[in-house]
Recover the amino acids of this structure.
């Protein structure tokens, strides 16, 4: 006689029952948490990349411009033949213009006249057609050093400051007494901190080496970089 054992209804077709509603809800919650973590990590990575690009561009551009200015200002007044009337033309807090005899454009040898390209140089800030304030460099032949159109040496510069010192290190306003120059530049990032790694408000008041304020606190979300140096004008000692 065969024995037939009846399977309880609760145990029938267990493998085909699928997930319960509670199990589905738990799975959805876990998946949502994982996706939120992935999205957050991605956004953090993008913000970090944007921040690095903005700060690197500001830093490299400002430092490159400063190096060019240092090199040229050190050559201000270069006049080996003593006939070019080289020296300082304009020495204001926000503008510096000078003459040097460095080459005739062909042999790159002093020719006794300061009428060749790049022998009359002027630095100043200017605003371009987009409303951006830039550090500009101009070359021209005007006797007062004002000739030539300013071309961008560094974009997004909020402050440019010159302090002129005599041979004893005292501040002077006389162009024939200048022996060194304290140069200070405040560069600004090309975009505000929105979309960057951290929110930011710039409440810093920027000063030159003398402790004088050259840029008041802007209280905005732009990043800024202050660079300052002292340039010895060796050719102005003659």
């Amino acid at each position: 006689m065969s024995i037939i054992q009846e399977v309880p209804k609760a145990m029938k077709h267990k493998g085909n029952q699928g997930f319960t509603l509670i199990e589905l809800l738990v799975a959805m919650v876990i998946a949502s948490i994982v996706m939120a973590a992935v999205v957050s990590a991605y956004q953090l990575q993008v913000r970090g990349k944007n921040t690095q690009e903005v700060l690197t561009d500001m830093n490299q551009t400002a430092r490159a411009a400063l190096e060019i200015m240092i090199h040229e200002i050190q050559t201000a007044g270069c006049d080996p033949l003593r006939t070019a009337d080289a020296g300082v033309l304009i020495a204001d807090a926000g503008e510096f213009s000078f003459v040097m005899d460095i080459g005739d454009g062909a042999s790159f040898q002093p020719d006794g006249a300061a009428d060749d390209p790049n022998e009359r140089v002027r630095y100043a800030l200017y605003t371009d057609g987009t409303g951006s304030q830039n550090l500009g460099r101009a070359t021209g032949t005007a006797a007062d050093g004002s000739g030539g159109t300013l071309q961008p040496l560094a974009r997004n510069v909020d402050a440019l400051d010159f302090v002129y010192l005599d041979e004893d290190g005292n501040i002077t306003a006389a162009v024939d007494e200048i022996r060194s120059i304290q140069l200070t530049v405040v560069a600004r990032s090309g975009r505000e901190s929105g979309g960057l790694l951290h929110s930011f408000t710039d409440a810093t008041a920027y000063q030159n080496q003398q402790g004088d304020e050259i840029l008041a606190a802007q209280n905005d979300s732009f990043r800024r970089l202050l660079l300052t140096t002292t340039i010895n004008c060796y050719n102005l000692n003659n």
Observations:
- Helices lie at 21-74.
- The chain has one domain: 46-232.
